[in-house]
Amino acid sequence: MGEHITPINEIIGAYMDSGFTGDENDEDFLGLMHKRGAYAALTKKIEPRQARESIKFISQISYLHNAGSDIVVSLSKEDAHDIFQSIYPISGIREPDGNLEIQRLAHFFRDGSEHDFFEYRGTMLSDEIESGFHEGSKVKKTHIIIERNTKLRGFYFERSPVAICNSCNMDTRKKYPWMHRVLDLHHILPLSSGTRVDSKKGTMLEDLMPICPTCHRAIHGFYDNYLRESNKKDFTDEGEAKAVYGLAKQKIVGGGCYAR
Prior knowledge:
This protein is mostly helical.
């Protein structure tokens, strides 16, 4: 699976030039490719900041990854095709008032749409149970999509080539010397939160922790228990999320758990 990099300004320019409404198919989008060189220049005619920030926001909870002024796509060809076959525009007359338009759009999803998330079967494992959660939910899918973003994982370990699990303190390089890297990334913000982005540095890596796969599954299970006992679907804020992560770590390293 390859990675595809596109400047954000080029995406904005392509949208401006296309006149697309959302009814187009994948072949229509492919037809935009032959004019790629001209799109970035179109953004000089507008103030692109809002559009740029919107694209960065979307990338936080999807298969996209923001790298400065670029968007990186870590997605298989099969999954890209599945997306185009699954998405559809929201029809109807737009409300002139922005707040009313948001309410109109929210109405389509108030009961929870089965299409709110795509599975990306060829790109990542998407079953929450695989990752240690006892039960599935939309916020957990958001959490898993972020943690399994291959580009984000590569970006993190390129800048922080650690081999020690932040949870159990196992040195994976010593434990598995034949492996290049076995650590996962754990996102320590509330489950529904995207990765935070600094306008100059890109994705904020301090929101991610390197942990071994076993600890990762155990921590997700701990989260499930905590949220169920607290009658919550998600952590209230960053402080609670980090505190519960700390509690899970204490449980993992405490007690005599090793066979003699």
